[in-house]
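Tip: read the tokens left to right.
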């Protein structure tokens, strides 16, 4: 009776070193394209229009494409099981969401600090409503000092 466990191991597709060189060159080309677009946007001094936002979108797509390759090849997730990939990718998306949320919060704080004036005093624009009984004197039920109390007949 044999009590040993045999583990089947598959080699990665591709030639190892050849694949790493190919992916590194591919990522370098993507980086050069990103930088070229960024330098063009900087030198052309584009106004905040559709074209500038389109170029920024292209840069973000290229960055995500590079991130996919880095995670897939250099973290060896391309050759892993689907559940293992999801265990790493889902927290990665949460981490990206945290970064976006913190950047938005920091930008909001920065904008508020720029508008803050420590010497500004806000004055009320609405007048306070008049309260009944404080200004006018209601004398219908009061008894003056020179009057005698009224007696009711029985």
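Filled-in amino acids:
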């Amino acid at each position: 009776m044999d009590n040993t466990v045999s583990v089947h191991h598959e080699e990665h597709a591709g030639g190892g070193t050849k694949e790493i060189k190919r992916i590194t060159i591919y990522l370098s080309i993507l980086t050069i394209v990103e930088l070229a677009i960024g330098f063009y946007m900087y030198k052309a001094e584009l106004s905040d229009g559709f074209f500038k936002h389109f170029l920024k979108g292209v840069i973000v797509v290229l960055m995500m494409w590079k991130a996919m390759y880095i995670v897939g090849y250099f973290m060896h997730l391309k050759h892993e099981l689907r559940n293992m990939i999801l265990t790493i990718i889902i927290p990665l998306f949460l981490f990206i969401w945290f970064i976006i949320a913190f950047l938005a919060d920091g930008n909001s704080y920065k904008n508020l600090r720029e508008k803050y004036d420590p010497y500004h005093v806000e004055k009320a624009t609405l007048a306070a409503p008049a309260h009944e009984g404080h200004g006018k004197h209601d004398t219908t039920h009061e008894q003056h000092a020179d009057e005698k109390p009224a007696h009711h007949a029985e």
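The helical segments are 17-44, 50-74, 82-115. Residues 81-117 form one domain.
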